[in-house]
Design goal:
Layout lengths: L1 E7 L5 H12 L4 E6 L4 E6 L6 H10 L4 E2 L2 H32 L13 H15 L1 H12 L5 H22 L13 H23 L15 E6 L2 E6 L8 E4 L3 E2 L3 E6 L2 E4 L1 H4 L5 E3 L4 E2 L4 E2 L4 E7 L5 H15 L6 H28 L5 H14 L3 H21 L1 E3 L3 H5 L5 E5 H5 L5 E7 L4 H8 L5 H8 L9 E6 L3 E6 L2 E6 L1 H6 L9 H6 L3 E7 L3 E8 L6 H10 L3 E5 L4 H11 L3 E3 L7 H10 L4 E5 L5 H6 L2 E5 L4 H6 L2 E3 L5 H36 L5 H20 L18
Parallel strand pairs: 16-23, 16-25, 23-24, 25-26, 26-27
Antiparallel strand pairs: 1-3, 1-4, 2-3, 5-6, 5-7, 7-14, 8-13, 9-12, 9-14, 10-11, 10-13, 15-27, 17-22, 18-19, 19-20, 20-21, 21-22
Length: 726
Amino acid sequence: MKRETIKVSNITCAQCAKSIESYFGGMEDVDAKVLVTSKKVIFNYDEEKFDSEKLGNHLRIIGYYPIFNNEEQQKAKRKDSIDLILAFILTFPLLWTMFVHLGIPIYVPEILMNGYVQWAIATPILFFVGRRFFQATYHQIRGKNLGMDALVVLGTSAAYIYSVYTTLTYDSHAGHAMPDLYFETTAVIIFMVLLGNFFENRVKEKTSDALQSLISLGAKEARIRKNGKDTMVSVDDVKPGDIMIVLANEKIALDGIIIDGKSYVDEAMITGEPMPAFREIGDKVIGSTMNTVETLEIRVTAVGSDTILASIIQTVEDTALIKPKAQRIADKIAALFVPVVVVISIGVFFVWLLVVDGGHAASHAFAPAIAVLVISCPCALGLATPTSISVGSGIAFKEGILYKGGEFFEIANKINAVAFDKTGTLTKGHPELSDLVGDEDTLVYSASLEKHSNHPIAKAITDAYDEDYLDVSDFQVLLGKGIKGTIEQKEVYVGSPNLMKELKLDLSGFDYESYLKQGKTVFFTAIDQKIVNMLAVTDPIKESAKGVIDELKRRKITPYMITGDQEITARYIGSLLGIDHIFYEVLPHEKAEKILEIQKEGKIVAFVGDGINDAPALKMADVGFAVGSGSDIAIDTSDVTLMNLDLGLVIKAIDLSLATLKNIYLNFFWAFSYNIVMIPLAAIGLLNPSLAGIGMGFSSIMVVLNALSLNLFRFKKLETKEIIKI
């Protein structure tokens, strides 16, 4: 069975997911699972019977639009925009006629009062602009899971059909005026629901969507050696056991074991650690990482879905499917709300037909029945969540925070534990020169030599030096140890303590072990067999980290650190920040397991990370925060993206989410109160369908105005605390 993820432009709610899963559930050799918040469908299918194109065609049959490239994405957006604009243009003249129905003395062109003209205007709104609702309702009926789309279809169709009947049976020679028509009701309902979908789509567009294109992180081709000849081939054609040649500054295409050569491999995109790892014969390497120094000969051990990168993708997707997130409130109640409203409407019709009018005037019974359907249409319910989230997300965006859907708002107030990745999250994620012990004037030798190296530590040293460089000759990389060269006819080494010991140089004048205990990397510069300085390089802690940890503790939220770094470094950083709960030397795939351990203690856990290795943990956590400077996959798998390095955004994101959640609850209170009051009024005939349409529109306006009140929210200011080194 092949696994494939397809993005779908118009997945909006849990009902969409049920429709898609139900449709494919009735087919053999294919299984579909829907990620609603990411607008994606994960397929597992038999390659002999299905492919991407066939799956896309099946999605189109049930009214959903697959997105295979950016052009289709833009096309889908244009299609939605055209529908919304067309609905607005055609709805406006019909709304104009509503003033006459209400007895308001305002000029309305006589032609607009003609039933046939209104019929002509309303028809494209219902059957062209509103076609998506009919398609969705059809498949909801087949899947036996009626949703809000069914109410839209029932309400608009009933008002339309009744108005058509009234127009056709009206006798202009009878001497009486044309009775009230309800074409404008049809138009208003469709326009307001489309407007709600527009708000929701804008929210989701603000977030990164890199999981679909994650494969681009890996190499497309690999250099394979066969019969002594090197040939570039597609990674799809590589088999386990093939010999892969990877040059310096070239991406390692697939997982494997080094059989010849040694080099530094930049694994930051997988492990999150900033320092390249030294790899030599017998060591395993991971596909999509970068070889930085020397040519490597690698025996391929895994291809396709067996690679570590592919496993991370699958873990992320599978975790998202099983993650117990709350659905939108409107979708939860739809299964009960829709049939109840339909039953009430039918009951009202027969009560009026058989009891009130004695079985004579069916038209009198039809009006209150339609009014019940119209007044119950889910415009306010549909707007309640997306409008508040849209306004809240707009406020957050100005602060550098991106929300990815409504689930975070429902759970943020329950968070009582926050776990942080170390590198790139609590720390800045790139090394800096923190200490220079010895003759400061000799830094020119160190920097001049390091200028010829592409190691991140070399950049840390050269960044700290802003003078002119000296000429270097006979430059040489001593893999795993350091570098050497000739400067001003002097032999210069910059390297590790082990290199100095090999050179039999005296280290007794430098207390380098105390720096190692602080998690720093130590290098020495030796000129003509004499050590002249010691350089300590560290990954500095972010200025905002201490203040955030203190604020979390004040709120009775327990901070944790989960890192792949060694125990000494992890505990030292934890002691500086005041974090007591530390998991160290954690492998990438184990981070999600540590999150699960914390959850089993009864904690609602948020995780803050930035690397690809953090992606499963971001999904396993109840709430995932991705630091925006991190990898695309981490950003895509998170619930919240922090667009700059300020960890104070974690606190701001939680506070704004609480304010937004309160706003959403107030919206739902208004929407439900409106239905509770208005449905009985419509049932007893005090609201005709036109008034019901206006009332429905008014309820939506109230929801929008309440959402806009979020703009009055003000963030709490956090102090930036200086970290006292111990």
